[in-house]
Amino acid sequence: MLKLCEIRKSYRGHLALDGVSLLLQPGVTGLLGPNGAGKSTLMNILTDNLLPDSGEVLFDGIPIRRMGKAYRRLLGFTPQQQGLYDDFTGRRFLSYMAALKEIPRKDIGGEVERTAGLVNLSAELDQRIGAYSGGMKQRLLIAQAVLGDPRLLIFDEPTAGLDPRERVRVRQLLASLAQERTVLVATHVVPDIESIADNVILLKSGRITASGPPEELIGRY
Ligand code: ADP
Ligand code: ADP
């Protein structure tokens, strides 16, 4: 469904992505690479937040640049945990994000309840985000990504800063979301993806060095 063709991107002469081509299929794909490998750059390009210098991202054969808002509606994205609105309640944050995603006003209340239920935050929706644990904040960001039920979900370092129990919980949650969806999880830590990914892509210095099932690839990382 999502295809990247020969993506190149440099920042003032520094080559961050050097001809990346890949096909994302339904299920979980793990994008595994050390810091500086180009993961964030790649995610910014495939969420249409950054233009590549050359190459193309196609969704069902159509360049995403030409799809505009229609592409954004198909996409849910969890950026790294920062800039969460501490003084908002969870409900206010999700309602606000739903409005930004242009979910019809009459559907927002129900959509907030549905997504909070998916991430098991229903009971805490009316608490301040500032009082949430790291794991709760991460689950709230995941709920935000699932608003409007997009087919494509992208998670950037989804377990960063979480304690071991919360990590396991977030990984299980990501795996459960992969039913009938295409999920990309970018991480520099193997345990994030080894038990949930159907396919793993190794990225190093802006190039894909290998891809395949996790059991074959993880030893090479
Ligand atoms: P990762 O997410 O895997 O850590 P990034 O995509 O953030 O990798 O970075 C890839 C490379 O590009 C790194 O060498 C990084 O320092 C560089 N880079 C990323 N963003 C910028 C930027 N805005 N300006 C200059 N260099 C950047
Ligand atoms: P990550 O590894 O998650 O991408 P970074 O610390 O590499 O985190 O990047 C954080 C932000 O800084 C990103 O917006 C990235 O584009 C930018 N950035 C990364 N490296 C550089 C760099 N060398 N020069 C300027 N901006 C950079």
Automatic annotation (TrEMBL):
The keyword Transport applies. Keywords: ATP-binding, Nucleotide-binding, Transport. InterPro entries: AAA+_ATPase, ABC_transporter-like_ATP-bd, ABC_transporter-like_CS, P-loop_NTPase. The keyword Transit peptide does not apply. It comes from the Bacteria. GO terms for molecular function: ATP binding; ATP hydrolysis activity. Residues 2-221 form the ABC transporter domain. Gene3D superfamilies: P-loop containing nucleotide triphosphate hydrolases (3.40.50.300). It holds the Pfam family ABC_tran. Belongs to the ABC transporter superfamily. This is ATP-binding cassette domain-containing protein. It comes from Zongyangia hominis. The lineage of its organism: Bacteria, Bacillati, Bacillota, Clostridia, Eubacteriales.
